[in-house]
Amino acid sequence: MNKFWIVLSHTYLSKLKTKSFIISTIIMMALILVLSNMSKLIDAFDGDDKQKVAIIDQTEGGFFEPYKNAAKGVNEDLSIVSAKSEAEARKLVSSDQIAGYLLIEKDDRLGFKGTYKAKQISDSAISNDLLLALTQLKSQITANELKLTDQQIAQLNTPPDFETIALQKNAKTEEDLNQARGLVYVLLFVIYFGVLMYATMIAMEVATEKTSRVMEILISSVPPVTQMFAKIMGVALLSLTQMVLFFGVGYLSIKQNLTNMDEGFFSFFGFGNMNISTIIYAIIFALLGYLLYATLAACLGSVVSKIEDVQQMISPMTMLVVIAFLIAMFGLGNPSASYITITSFIPFFTPMIMFLRVGMLNVPVWEIALSIAVMITTIVLLGILGAKIYRGGVLMYGSSKSLKSIKNALQLSKKK
Known about the structure:
The mean pLDDT is 75. The protein has helices at residues 2-16, 19-36, 38-46, 64-74, 86-94, 124-145, 150-157, 174-211, 214-218, 224-257, 264-268, 276-302, 310-313, 315-331, 338-343, 350-360, 365-393, 404-415, and strands at residues 51-57, 78-82, 100-107, 111-118. The longest helix is centred in the middle third of the chain and has 38 residues, at 174-211. The protein has a four-stranded mixed sheet, with helices on both faces. The protein is elongated, with a radius of gyration of 30 Å. By secondary structure, it is α/β, with parallel strands linked by helices. The two termini are 21 Å apart.
């Protein structure tokens, strides 16, 4: 057992002190600081500047003032100015005094039409606001022509009441689902990158030791199986250290700069109404997913003799993680779909897909317990098989670029 802790501490400390780990951690912490202050940064860049748009009225119907009022009702930050001609408007656009100009012309079929021109039309928000204001103006003109009262206009523009009700007992409301969707979306990314990054790190660690011939020294004093599980736990400890730093920096930054998480950027992702059970399940499934893929990665890394062959060897494992993530992304729109339910019990997909269901639906406790039990059983079986592969794989040298190497590793482990 003493040898296990020696290998674990060596794996943890050696990775902790590497420049790549320190630099990547600092970059991620800086990115978290930016994201946690996103609302303030957006406000700082926006400032008090208003987008200016010139209006050229060629209908001779006096549309400028009515349209200006309609645009103000749509977006208060949109500043409407008048231009006498397109030549004048083009000069204003060229000198960056206005974002663009709207040409209002007569139309025999609809009465009038609008054409928006700007240097770039990538900012669809401005054109959408201009269209909405033009639509509202047309509705007002049509209502006046039909001599409709204000009450009739209000009835015409008011949509019917529409409500969605779940018949299942204790089912989440539409509001709850919308709030949970953003939080689950973010945590799915955390699980995805965490599992993929740290599992790959183990494969690279084993391959590096074999390349430098350090493995030959290690196996003479430490059993290969002890090495494998010590490395898995060492990198797990490293991942926990990094996650604590990430979430710690994010929490302190949010707490210091924001008093309310129910507005703006954070409300969009549902952080204002975080359910502690969702966070707990995210941690559970992330750890189980890591142990599952880390064991597999250690086995695959042990049969590789060159670092450059690692990516090719672990590509099937990477594809499993990617497929699970893509299924989870598709499932965000319909988490109760049958294919989501079925794949949530497939061990390699469970960490992300069952977490998706737990985060967005009221999943029966027995289903959650069953998925966790299936994962733990798979981890144990993979650990037993992986120990045999690792025991033979660490002694293999030469070209190892295919899964056939696993068979050779198993045969070699039997001879020991």
